[in-house]
Amino acid sequence: MKITSALSVRAIMHGIIISPYMTKTKLVRHIQRKEGASSCFRSDERDHCQGGCEWEGDCKEALVAAWR
Predict the structure, then answer these.
(1) Is the dihedral of CA 4, 35, 25, 60 positive or negative?
(2) Residue 66 confidence (pLDDT) above 60
């Protein structure tokens, strides 16, 4: 998944350094931590998601293991 320019700008505003190997998942989690939220994007915590997050659509459309 591609990192958008808006996401990059937001990361830079928080002082996050974006490496060439950083994924969107890692970047969003860094932003969530900087903003004081749980870094739950595409993690096991999404099973208990209350909704309302701006990344909810991207998070929930990710593949989930068959055993879950």
Answers:
(1) negative
(2) no
What residues contact 58, with CB distance under 8 A and at least 6 apart? 1, 24, 28, 41, 42
pTM of the model: 0.81
- Greatest distance between any 2 Cα atoms in the chain: 39
Residue 55 backbone phi and psi in degrees, to 5: -105, 10
Higher pLDDT: 67 or 21? It is 21
* 36: three-class secondary structure by DSSP: coil
* Closest residue by Cα to residue 65 from 39, 40, 47: 47
- Cα distance between residue 26 and residue 68, in whole Å: 22
Give the single-character DSSP code of 67.
T
